[in-house]
Amino acid sequence: MNLTLHEIGRAVGAINDFEKFNDTKINKLEFDSRKIEEGDIFLPLKGARDGHDFIGTAFRKGAGVAFTEAPIKGWPFLQVADCKVALQSLAHYYLKKQKPDVIAITGSNGKTTTKDMTAAVLSSHFKTYKTQGNYNNEIGLPYTILSMPDDTEKLVLEMGMDRPGEIDFLSELAEPKIALITLIGESHLEFFGSRREIARGKMGITKGLLRENLLIAPADPIIDEFIPEGQKLVRFGVSDEDIYITKLIEHKDHLTFETNFLDKAVTIPVPGKFNATNAMLAAYVGRLEKVPEDKIHKALSEVELTRNRTEWLKSSIGADILSDVYNANPTAMKLILETFQSFEANSGGRKLVVLADMLELGEKSPEMHASIAEVIQADKLDQIFLYGPMMKYLAERLPEALYFTNFEELSSAVQANLKPKDQILLKASNGMGLSKLVERLTEK
Ligand code: IGM
Questions:
Q1: Best of 29, 30, 33 to mutate for ligand 1, by most ligand atoms within 8 A of CB?
Q2: Per-domain residue ranges for the chain?
Q3: Within 10 A of 304 (CB to CB), how many other CB atoms are there?
Q4: What CATH class is the domain 311-442?
Q5: Which of 5, 185, 322, 386 could form a disulfide with 425 if both were Cys (CB 3.0 to 4.6 A apart)?
């Protein structure tokens, strides 16, 4: 990170005498103590546990300095009123200092794909960095900014909308040069009430956008009332819009399309009409940023899409699967359980949950697994499947849950139990192999 401790202290308004720590080496910033390396700054957040309890661990792992809300003894620290706010102010300061062009992307569907494709196009010509995984919220986005390499020219940021007003905040933090909305869909209706409120939420992306900077948005009249006076705007749609697809040929594993603004046809290595729109948007951003057209075509033809960390899938029998099986920490597990429990069940359907171990949690691992019980609302779930040595500690707190130590037994029980109208959540660390179960549930 291209920052000195002195600069960081000033940027976040640290209230202790941090000048005396000025020879402390700065590497990168982490809030998960498992990721700490020599010279890192540890930033304790209040997740499932209070990160302040892990400050000692972070220093033993080599942290050079820690943020803290209360003074600590024996180690360099930066005392702030609120560590989350400090993370956000530091990210804002770092953006102003490094000045990459920010491309902000939101939308109900396709934002991750559009982000990946846009970053692929831009990285063919510029030093480009993008949001990793689901780091798209008020913690993930500032973390992404602070993780970008020193020489980043283009920064592609995904903005998620977990609650109303969140995108306004993220946009003001990131001050995009280009803001892109992929689609105003129906997801999150349970929090937002109506499509109009979803549109209002997404259009928050213009809050940090200068009028002379560009908004790219769907030709969907629902957003019209939220377009700021004098906003520079490009709209995309089926035809007769500023940008659109003129011809599309779908193949089994790839597709080809033409647009009203590129000379040649684009080929992408993924099927699905939605992906053509996403690729068109990425190509358009490439054109705006003066990426030569041949590089745009090459980048899109080779694009690699990151598997969504959290994704809704359809099982082979028609059940809805909420899969998040690549990464786990206690905070994320509690958050996704709360979200899943807040959903209305499909009519005539049940709600099932499969939880497997969170890895690398150290000696406190049993307690942390058991603590997941705090967010479980038995009346909102019909069946809970637990799997793995650590989940035994959660099973002890949840007598109604089915507990498995063997993957094949878990797999058979879930497959035998799942019915077409059900919703099922699967959550675990990657190492637990639940992606195998997701595969079995979805394979035709
Ligand atoms: O939901 S998140 O995963 N996320 C982050 C990025 O953007 C999208 C959302 C998330 C959030 Cl929002 C907040 C926090 Cl604080 C994750 C975290 C988080 O990393 N939480 C973690 C813990 C909690 N609670 S990481 C972590 C713990 C690792 N820690 C245990 C507790 C390891 C450890 C175990 C035993 C020890 O003695 C020391 C450390």
A1: 33
A2: 3-82, 99-301, 311-442
A3: 9
A4: alpha beta
A5: 322
